[in-house]
Design goal:
mainly alpha, 3-stranded mixed sheet, 3 strands, 74% helix, 6% strand
Amino acid sequence: MNVWIIIGLVIAAAVLLCFLLAVANFSYDKFMERYKQMDNTEANTSMTPVEFANRVIAKYIKRRLEIVQISRQAGDAYGGGKLYLSSNSIYKKSLASYTIIAHELGHALQDVSGNMLKVLHALRRTGRVLGVLMLPSLIAGLVLLFFGETLFIVGCGLIGLSVLIFIMALIVRLRQISIEKDASKKAMMFLEDYFDERELKLCRKLLSDAKLTYWAGFLRLILIWTGVSRKESLFN
């Protein structure tokens, strides 16, 4: 009986691992599929994406933001008081454009109303420095375990350091997910001022798929030891 329980647990663990790997590896593809679908769905509004951005900035941000045009599609971002928008987002009146702009404006509102973005950026900068030490510390620690009592203790310390760096990476990633979730919540608040329920439903789906890509990054980080998930840096 105990043998069958163990076999059942092993099978369940294998199925769970496969599911997590599938989520980790294919969530971005799902997001891009949704993005392309909504990029071909014209919004029922007369205002341009830039007009939408300026209205949200005037009502909620209440601070001047520079809009910078970039070439990379779906590479829109906010940082340092600047809103980086792809030419597609600026000129195409699709639901994807308004949704992505709203999400990045959510980050802008976070920036002007608190320090969560600044704290995250500081943690990531610190993490990138410490992240360089993780693998060498782990390898050196494992080697030193076999060279006497004193070096054994040093080896344990180095392994412990690498584990702490990895835990820090997980904590930072969870913090990032929380911030992205909050930005999406603010995005829906902006969008609700201008779009109907049918359009808002599609916007929510795009934001949900985008959030899944961040959870996928977290899973890839956890599953990095498997070697079969897409490469994921510790502090991206």
